[in-house]
Amino acid sequence: MKKQTFFLLGILFLLASCVVKSLEPFYTSKSISYDENLLGNWTDSRKGKWKIISFKDQITKENPFSKMKKEDKVLYNLYKDGYYILREYKDIETLYLAVPFVIKNEKFLDFFPIDNQDNVDNLLERHSVYTHSLVKYDINNEGGLSIKWLDEDKIEALFEEKKIKIQHRKIGVLKEKYLLTASSKDLEKFIEKYISSDDSKKWDTDTKYTLTKTVETE
């Protein structure tokens, strides 16, 4: 009985994630906008450590473009304006690939997880399908970084009220979740309309962080 209880609690924990997920990136090549201000070491409001590195610099560090294999060149061209983002929290490291883009003067990141130290060689990991998520970010006058994920509750309400039409699927066993299946072009159109909506709380979310630049000492 205890095993069943722990199993169900584990499933509920996995379903607790409340960010909007998409099979396709939230951006197209025309909206990509590299932002050097994101680079560096940061500490978030939950005492997590972030390291944001240029994808282009990292991939060419020991592998010049002229000597890259064909598949590496494909990755380079896709993500040369993106970042590797390494977050360490409670001794667990998670690596993300993030691409910056701008729509209607608002700044965003397309987040895509590529490695979780805690799930290496784990049967659960072998069943996982990584998805894209949407982050709105702002840099304040002091150089601090605010990042907010688009909350699924907001999108769920829009679907239920029939205020949006965008391709999606409902997934999940105990609680259905929304998975966007629209093209990147249609996702950009959705973001444009969402930015223009009169909902003053459209970016409210529990999945948010305030990052402060780490002062490096020699």
How would you describe what is shown here?
- The chain has 218 residues and is an alpha+beta fold.
- Helix content is 26%, strand content 32%.
- It contains six helices and eleven strands.
- It has helices at residues 2-15, 55-60, 70-79, 123-126, 152-160, 184-196; strands spanning 21-22, 40-44, 49-54, 83-89, 92-103, 106-116, 132-139, 145-149, 168-171, 177-180, 208-213.
- An eight-stranded antiparallel beta barrel has the order 2-3-4-5-6-7-8-11.
- The longest helix is centred in the first third of the chain and has 14 residues, at 2-15.
Question: Which structural category do the helix and sheet elements fall into?
Answer: alpha+beta
Mean pLDDT: 86
Number of helices: 6
Low-pLDDT regions: 1-16
Q: Could you give the order of the helices and strands?
A: HEEEHHEEEHEEHEEHE
Q: Walk across the major sheet and give the strand order.
A: 2-3-4-5-6-7-8-11
Would you count the extended β strands for me?
A: 11
Largest sheet: 8 strands, antiparallel, barrel
